[in-house]
Fold each of these.
Amino acid sequence: MNIASIASGSNGNCYYLENNDDAILVDAGISARQIVERMARLGLSVSKLRGVFISHEHSDHIRGLDAFTKRYAIPVFITSKTYSSYGKILRGSSLNFFAPGMQVQLGKICVNTFLKSHDATEPCSFSVSAEGKTVAVMTDIGCKCASVTSHIQNADAVFLESNYDDDMLRTGYYPPYLKARIASDSGHLSNTQAARLLLEHASSRLKHVFLSHLSASNNTPELALGTFHHFIGQRNDLKVEVTLTSREKESALVSLD
Ligand SMILES: [Zn+2]
Ligand SMILES: [Zn+2]
């Protein structure tokens, strides 16, 4: 299985996962043109995509979906409530509804869907399995619910939100209501919350972490990485490679062997 971040951050998210024959995207939060360009730089073709899974209706996860599906007629997997909140009409033939908790099989890729704690209509995370490997895609989670911890335990790799540094958020310029929203149980995970989650719940099968959905205003790559190493350094049994994702460009394509 190969995986990459096509875009990650508070202004656009898109994640790529493939096995030999099939591929999926999770979210389409940047323009269709950017998705295709960034995939092409990694040598990836849109023709291999069997579906785009949508986590929730916030614009940083769905902005490019309309144009992307119009141009390429790739099936969209979305909950009916998220679709209602989206407000745009997608072509019926490419629309597939899933209920949170459902498993979707596309070729040899199996996508487990589960609800997460975030201030959207019906927000979902995904755990994607193929070729004996499992990758969790978990951004925009306000707290670690039982689903999050159990999927972390079973993951060989994870795209995990590391949204904000506590001090930067507290002392930053955001208005108080927005600070409270971000730090709430239906907002985002801080660097410390994300690193603690791994410290406490990752199993030794975890080999790769993509630190994801970093805030442009309340975080820096150095702080996210420093916090991660501080906590993960306490687990001698873990040998984890870490990738810092970017909103500006795609990550490398990582193979899980
Ligand atoms: Zn969101
Ligand atoms: Zn988001």
Note: The mean pLDDT is 96.
Amino acid sequence: MLAYRYWGDKELRLEEAPAPVLGDEGALVKIKACSICGTDVRMYRFGSEKTDKGRIVGHEMVGLIMELAPGLPGDFKVGDYVSMAPAIGCGECYSCRKGHTNMCDRLATMGFQYDGGFAEYAVFPKKAFFMGNVYTLPCLNDVVPFTLSEPLACVINAQSYLHIEAGADVVIFGSGIIGCMHAELVRAQGARVFIVEPSEERRQQVKDLLTDVTFVTGGKEGAAGEIIRLTGGKGADVAIIACSVGSAQSDGLRSLAKCGRLSLFGGLPGDGLGFLDSNRIHYYEIGVFGVHASTPAQNKTAMELLYSGKFDAGKFISKRYPISKIETAFKEVAEGSILKAVIVMD
Ligand SMILES: [Zn+2]
Ligand SMILES: [Zn+2]
């Protein structure tokens, strides 16, 4: 089968790989679609120390169960469309016992420590079934938008810390797919949304996808100055950094009102040191929150939002590619000309 593998030091190659066998694991899944995540693009641009060499990448996948191990929990059957929360906890460590399985000490993630979804077949580990990470899709027509349930789950995780209320002012840095998803979810809670996006091309790309958001370019005045002015001098109640840019973290902090909340959604390449003014955090009583991956429960919530039509993920998918064109897809996403790319198998 064709598979897209990581070989260390920014090297990703589309190559022929042996089709996997079920062995002692949970399910053999024929991949239907797998979308390209910001994390995948970071691996493509900067490499990844967290990813095993030779690993098939991709973690935002949906597929069809072809073969199933006996004795799994739940009522899965051959022929079901399934998706999964790709970060699989051990179930035993302190974080897992507290329900934060995404914070597991021995976290193992599809596309990083297990082979992922940029291939014709993948094996879903037994552990994923026992930890509740796998879930059945409720419909069989266009399953492609469901690949976005994983990034949406991460957005839900981030916002769970932020206490966003109706009427609040929320500023989002970056209007990539994550920034757009944050904006939609914030608006649904009745808050006002500002998006800091310096790229004219990107603003044009998303302006028709989002309604009732105010774009901020961060020109002469600087993003923080503009946000403070637009919020009547008080600053935003919440700032979400949905990009991997250190100066956006500094600007986000500076754009906040007293008692504001800052969410560092995008990780930074390198060590991530030196962007936050601790005195500002201290004197303004700012809450700073990290976020990493998501839990199975958040993935199920995301899937329900998509299925019920409350969240329209399909509109954010800019382009579908066959796996033979995955290299083009990565190139186009990395260049910023595509908002969200999904690899769709035949
Ligand atoms: Zn992802
Ligand atoms: Zn654990």
Note: Residues 89-90, 92-93, 95-96, 104-106 surround zinc ion (ligand 2) (CB under 6 Å).
